[in-house]
């Protein structure tokens, strides 16, 4: 074989090797995402903790039991670190609030998938047909998305969510227990009635007797000075461009009734004004803790999907009338039916919550629950009873803002140790309090 023949052979080998390497080279993430059926993908700027960030829209069946009912687009965010890292899937109970990495994603140095809940913000069907807004339909949305992405990310999967997102995490795991390896719901209530009375019981016993007395006296002062508070509330509403279909006075009444719930939910803001406070001081504190915008027309409209779910399937609370009856015209506790003023009262079906409650106490596994002791929503926290396959941690005096890093160090270590055992990983504990 002469030199010319050898040269041609070498060139041929190099070309064949190059083609072979190109054929076996893994596709990049964007290509893999674009190959998912019914998905549109766009690379965007997100949290810089991730190497790549994408916005996806999944075409979902409005009714997963009847594809003929139509479809809608569901928004999803994907923060990519590595195909070898775990995936934390943030299940939102409402819209997507942020593109930032969550606590678990940082702890696990994980990829993060954030799924907007159906009927909220960018994941809203063209027609709000409420019959398709229920926990099973939403869980199936999440199942479809998770199944698609698991073909790309083969590692451990952890689902999580906060508040209603925590509820969503529980519900998804109930219907699809094998979709993920571990779940971490934060501050997630499990209401067993349309207006769960355990919330009233919590408000009657939480914290110290002295603080509860201060709260009652503050509410009483607000009602006694309502004629002085109304013009202040009116000016505040005009400044913020709020409007109230129920009327300003009714919105003010509800803000006062909401106050203890909000106080304990968020851990209190500033000191509670005493009996010597003037109307300006009363109104400023009231609107800081229990803002009147909760009852604003646009705020209620944005949350109508939540109120529908609360009043039909996942439960809510009511406002106690008895302590302030002389200042109100109501004979019964006030429910959140006021959010649908022109519609028939929704019929509540507790069967799903009752089944899920039983499942949590018997068959559920590797779900780690995070709660704050004082948080009003902890009144209806999950009760695991004898199920040792799951764990529940309650942060002493913690509020609805409780996270793993909120706990005392020894409790934090126990939480992290549980995640290490369940996920077969080693993690470092942040010693900061």
From TrEMBL:
The keyword DNA damage does not apply. InterPro entries: AB_hydrolase_fold, Peptidase_S37. GO terms for biological process: proteolysis. Pfam families: Peptidase_S37. Keywords: Hydrolase, Protease, Signal. The keyword Protease applies. One of its GO terms (molecular function) is dipeptidyl-peptidase activity. This is Peptidase.
């Amino acid at each position: 074989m002469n030199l010319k023949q050898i040269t041609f052979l070498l060139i041929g080998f190099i070309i064949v090797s190059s083609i072979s390497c190109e054929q076996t080279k893994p596709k990049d993430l964007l290509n893999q995402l674009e190959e998912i059926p019914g998905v549109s993908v766009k690379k965007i700027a997100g949290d810089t903790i991730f190497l790549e960030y994408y916005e996806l829209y999944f075409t979902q069946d409005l009714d997963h039991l009847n594809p003929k009912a139509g479809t809608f687009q569901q928004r999803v965010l994907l923060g990519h670190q590595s195909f070898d890292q775990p995936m934390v899937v943030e299940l939102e109970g409402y819209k997507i609030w942020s593109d930032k990495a969550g606590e678990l994603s940082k702890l696990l140095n994980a990829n993060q998938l954030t799924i907007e809940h159906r009927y909220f913000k960018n994941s809203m069907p063209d027609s709000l047909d409420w019959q398709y807004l229920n926990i099973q339909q939403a869980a199936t949305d999440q199942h479809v998305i998770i199944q698609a992405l698991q073909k790309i990310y083969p590692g451990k999967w952890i689902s999580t969510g906060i508040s209603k997102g925590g509820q969503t995490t529980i519900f998804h795991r109930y219907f699809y227990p094998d979709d993920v390896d571990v779940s971490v719901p934060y501050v997630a209530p499990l209401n067993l009635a349309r207006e769960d009375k355990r919330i009233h019981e919590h408000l009657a016993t939480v914290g110290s007797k002295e603080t509860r007395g201060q709260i009652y006296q503050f509410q009483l002062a607000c009602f006694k000075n309502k004629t002085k508070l109304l013009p202040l509330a009116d000016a505040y509403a005009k400044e913020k461009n709020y409007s109230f279909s129920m009327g300003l006075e009714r919105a003010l009444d509800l803000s006062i009734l909401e106050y203890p719930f909000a106080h304990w939910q968020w851990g209190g803001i500033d000191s509670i004004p005493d009996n010597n406070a003037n109307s300006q001081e009363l109104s400023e504190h009231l609107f800081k803790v229990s803002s009147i915008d909760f009852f604003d027309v646009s705020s209620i409209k944005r949350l109508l999907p939540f109120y529908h779910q609360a009043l039909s399937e996942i439960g809510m609370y009511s406002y106690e009338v008895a302590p302030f009856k002389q200042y109100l015209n109501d004979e019964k506790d006030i429910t959140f039916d006021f959010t649908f003023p022109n519609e028939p009262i929704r019929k509540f079906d507790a069967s799903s919550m009752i089944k899920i409650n039983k499942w949590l106490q018997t068959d559920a596994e590797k779900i780690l629950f995070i709660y704050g002791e004082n948080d009003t929503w902890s009144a209806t926290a999950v009760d695991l009873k004898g199920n040792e396959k799951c764990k529940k941690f309650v942060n002493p005096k913690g509020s609805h803002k409780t996270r793993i890093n909120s706990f005392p160090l020894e409790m934090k270590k126990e939480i992290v140790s549980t995640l290490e055992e369940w996920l077969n990983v080693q993690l470092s504990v942040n010693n900061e309090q």
